[in-house]
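Practice problem 4.
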């Protein structure tokens, strides 16, 4: 399968790329700063790198990245570090980027999208959880613009209902650097999912979902056991 990876220069994106390569997919990486990729990824025989942004003037580059692609998987999201998250722009730039991405997917007849989300994106299957209530409201209080952008990402993707987009939003809690790929998928407050997830687990879930399509048009919360 030929897969377009977005957000590939970040730690979760790197994991996505490596997991795709382990599964023998051809990986197209669309990135503003491809020099941030590790050398083994940049030089891999199954990797194609296209430099570009999601700004309107880079539309030709984004279009090129979609050529021949079977699915788009994305680790795009606002920064999570305390030094950057509070200063995220107020105009929901990542949600706007998704609007351009989805429009370009339609232009190239690419229908499958698996995107990173967080528990800030609510789901009808969620139940009340004191722990997640505290986590979500902590983000909303300390990094409101980042919170607003994540919510807008969910609205943008879900707003494609009836347009042919086959989407999954993989909502994550706090991400860790554990090497474990074990994942539980469920919903907030179901007494199954927890408050942390390894980035390796996130990547394994996304690449597995590419093959299984078990969560089509759903937004599960995934966590480590």
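Answer key:
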């Amino acid at each position: 399968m030929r897969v377009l990876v977005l957000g590939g220069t970040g730690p979760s994106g790197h994991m996505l790329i490596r997991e795709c390569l382990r599964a023998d997919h051809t990986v197209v990486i669309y990135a503003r700063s491809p020099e941030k990729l590790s050398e083994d990824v940049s030089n891999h025989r199954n990797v194609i790198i296209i430099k570009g942004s999601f700004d309107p003037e880079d539309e030709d580059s984004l279009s090129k990245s979609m050529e021949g692609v079977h699915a788009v998987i994305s680790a795009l999201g606002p920064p999570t570090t305390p030094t950057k998250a509070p200063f995220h722009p107020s105009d929901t730039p990542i949600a706007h980027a998704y609007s351009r991405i989805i429009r370009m997917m339609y232009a190239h007849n690419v229908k499958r999208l698996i995107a990173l989300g967080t528990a800030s994106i609510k789901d009808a299957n969620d139940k009340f959880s004191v722990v997640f209530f505290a986590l979500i409201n902590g983000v909303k209080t300390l990094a409101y613009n980042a919170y607003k952008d994540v919510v807008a990402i969910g609205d943008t993707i879900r707003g494609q209902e009836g347009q042919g987009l086959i989407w999954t939003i993989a909502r994550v809690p706090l991400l860790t650097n554990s090497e474990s790929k074990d994942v539980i998928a469920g919903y907030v407050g179901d007494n199954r999912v927890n408050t942390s997830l390894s980035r390796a687990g996130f990547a394994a879930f996304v690449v597995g979902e590419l093959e299984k399509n078990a969560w089509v048009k759903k937004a599960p919360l995934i966590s480590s056991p």
